[in-house]
Amino acid sequence: MIRVLIERHIADDLAEHYEKAARNTLQQAMQAHGFISGESLKNSNDHNHRIVMATFRTLQDWQRWHSSAARKEIMEAIMPMLESEEKITVLEH
Fold it and tell me: How buried is residue 12: exposed, middle or buried, by Cβ count under 10 Å (0-12/13-18/19+)?
């Protein structure tokens, strides 16, 4: 089992649009092979800093989802809302 930490910094005044897109992303990820769980968190000290924590069965399951057409399509909607590229960290036990 692995955990994937995704950090995003959204642009000012786009929180509502981002939240909708992030929920859609999580719903799509739930259908991915090997997906176990996921949650979206907001930094209490910086409301534009968002963290997604996802758990996948294997690294290969994550890589399959990360490179999938479905995720690429979703990210095309999210990327214009971000101040910088998302940072992804894969964590293992």
Answer: exposed
> How many CB atoms sit inside 10 A of residue 47's CB?
11
Q: Give the span between the Cα atoms of 83 and 7, in whole angstroms.
A: 11
**Is pLDDT of 23 > 90?**
no
| Residues 35-54 pLDDT 10s | 999 999 999 999 999 999 99
Report residue 64 CA to chain centroid gap.
14
pTM for the full predicted model: 0.91
For the chain, helix (H) and strand (E) counts, in that order, are 3, 4
Q: Which residues pair with 56 in a beta bridge?
A: 2, 35
- How high is the pLDDT of residue 9? 96
* Residue 78 CA neighbour count, 13 Å, CB half: 24
**β-pair type (46-56, 87-92):** unpaired
Task: State which amino acid sits at residue 62.
Answer: W
